[in-house]
Amino acid sequence: MQNKLFTLTFLILINTIVAQNDSTKIKRVPIDTIKPQLNMDAVYNRPFLQYGKTPVALGGYVEANTQYAVTDGVTEGFSFQMRRMTLFVASTISKKIKFLSEIEFEDGTKEINIEFAALDIQFHPLFNFRGGVIMNPIGAFNQNHDGPKWEFVDRPISATQLLPATFSNVGFGLYGKLYKPKFVWAYELYLTNGFNDNIIGNKQNKTFIPATKLDPNRFEESYNGEPLTSVKTSIRYKRLGEIGLSYMGGVFNKFEDDGLTLDKKRRADIFAIDFNTTIPKIKTVITTEWAWTFVDVPDTYTQQYGNKQQGGFIDIVQPIIKKKMFGFEKASFNAAVRLEYVDWNMGTFKETGGNISDDVFSIVPAISFRTSQQTVLRLNYRYQWQKDILGNPAAKTAAIQFGISSYF
């Protein structure tokens, strides 16, 4: 309740400030389009509004949708969802010191999360310090997740059910970039609070790394006193696109309590590769990401808890029409398709040698209308096959989804 009251007070304060000031002094902060942008730049590469010469800029985005889904002939009818509203508050404290926060409200106010609240101190392009609530850079989607950037209503399954989407923790680290005429190279290295044993102690009754987000105490203390390490390196060639390699890993169990050894240290380690490019002549945008997870599951757990997992997605977006339409100067129609796959349990049964299933595959064709790069209307059709651990015939789901998303 206190969180909701604080949030409501914050929103009223912001609205009051804007309402009481001269709107002609409110200006849009320009996005840097001169230097090549990487996924790691997404946190600042957003539209902001600034009043006069005040050091604080505001922004955000909103997502809402409706869907009708049927699984093996059974449906719950239409559902309307207010997926999320996210607020950004940024401040340039001095020439080389910046602060940015990102607060997300999901499903109305069912969940309120601080996804990013970090102070950046820039010493050199190759050596910069960041501290606070940091978004762990695993894959590309975790950092570059804003709804208006995507043609799809749902976030990728691999980013939300294999990896913990928008996963953030308190910690410190370094980042930097090297610019050359034909390419830009970057790195990030952070130590933060991290995993907990929700990874194997959850309602899904399987190894489920996203469940680690359910521990709200990770923003005030480490679950087991062991830091989580996040490392990423990326390189973008001018004509080829960006490729990134990332790693996130740490101990997830409470192995010691008051000096008493409870268990050995059990780790969860994640490796990911991501790639994005634009084919020059036809402007086709390709975005893909793949991840592998390795979890040290105790031998006392059944085989439904996998110690190896993998999954990823590929998005292909093709602009069809781009011109002035319906009074919008830079409107466009796009066609897109997403292919995605997740295997939560790689391996075979000890007793029979048969394959352990527990996987899902989906294909999502889509069309979208963008009034600009900041606002998108999208129509998706999802067809999905999901098998249980025994490999029984897949549960088939078909869904029609319509949604809107926009920065503000």
Keywords, separated by commas or semicolons:
single chain; 408 residues; mainly beta; Porin; 16-stranded antiparallel beta barrel; two-stranded antiparallel ribbon; 20 strands; 55% strand; globular
> How many helical stretches?
2
CATH class designation: Mainly Beta
Q: Kindly name the structural category.
A: mainly beta
Overall strand count: 20
Number of self-contained structural domains: 1
Order of helices and strands: HEEEEEEEHEEEEEEEEEEEEE
Radius of gyration from the alpha-carbon trace, in angstroms: 22 Å
Biggest sheet, strands in spatial order? 3-4-5-6-7-8-9-10-11-14-15-16-17-18-19-20
Mind explaining what this structure looks like?
The two termini are about 25 Å apart. The radius of gyration is 22 Å and the shape is globular. The mean pLDDT is about 90. Strand 4 (about 75-95) and strand 5 form a beta hairpin. The protein is about 5% helix and about 55% strand. It has a single domain, classed as Porin (Beta Barrel). The chain is mainly β and about 400 residues long. Strands 3-4-5-6-7-8-9-10-11-14-15-16-17-18-19-20 form a 16-stranded antiparallel β-barrel. A two-stranded antiparallel sheet has the order 12-13.
